[in-house]
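Run log // design_07
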């Protein structure tokens, strides 16, 4: 994507009512007024809040919002030029139960209050296979602690990935930490009993992975 196109999308994002782009100062000082008030001030309803971390173009968030109008969805990514597409699609379709938040996921606990989030989706994250990159792996213990700080006690985390490494790493970590694994399968499309939201919603890249013959894994777990 050219720099002119990126700048155009950044400018458009600033005009989108479904996009929130706090400054680092707001986040670090816990000055984001939406913290603890996402239902009331952003979605203007009392419906459950579901996050998608590393949402990319926002396809999964938008599709979840279409499929589950009784929930509120927030796609989170630091790359606003990417989720511009999802935000624009949501506005064009009049989807009021989906929005986008531009932050680094490392700062997530500064943007939501304790027990404010009902569920989290992590869709096709970078597995960060190299040892030096493990601190950026979205299911490492530090990130799990961040999620636990904002999730309701019964809130589920959904991990969907084409990386067998990420799938195995996460399962091993959860078992070692004593967390509850509610569901896990190494090939969701080869399993007719996989949850609907996992099989029926696909991103552009996921479709490519499937065409290449890659298996898609899925894990649902709880941090109680």
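design_07 sequence
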């Amino acid at each position: 994507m050219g720099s002119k196109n990126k700048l155009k999308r950044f400018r458009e994002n600033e005009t989108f009512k479904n996009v929130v782009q706090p400054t680092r100062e707001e986040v670090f000082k816990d000055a984001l007024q939406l913290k603890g008030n996402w239902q009331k001030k952003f979605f203007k309803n009392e419906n459950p809040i579901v996050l998608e971390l590393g949402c990319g173009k926002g396809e999964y968030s938008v599709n979840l919002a279409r499929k589950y109008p009784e929930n509120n969805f927030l796609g989170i990514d630091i790359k606003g030029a990417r989720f511009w597409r999802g935000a624009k699609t949501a506005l064009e379709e009049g989807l009021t139960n989906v929005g986008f938040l531009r932050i680094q996921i490392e700062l997530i606990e500064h943007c939501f209050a304790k027990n404010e989030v009902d569920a989290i989706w992590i869709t096709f994250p970078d597995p960060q296979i190299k040892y030096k990159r493990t601190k950026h792996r979205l299911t490492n213990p530090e990130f799990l602690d961040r999620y636990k700080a904002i999730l309701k006690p019964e809130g589920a985390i959904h991990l969907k990935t084409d990386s067998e490494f990420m799938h195995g790493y996460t399962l091993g970590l959860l078992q070692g930490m004593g967390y509850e694994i509610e569901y896990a399968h190494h090939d969701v499309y080869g399993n007719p009993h996989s949850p609907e939201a996992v099989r029926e919603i696909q991103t552009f890249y996921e479709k490519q992975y499937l065409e290449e013959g890659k298996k898609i894994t899925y894990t649902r777990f709880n941090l109680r």
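DSSP finds nine helices and eight strands in the chain.
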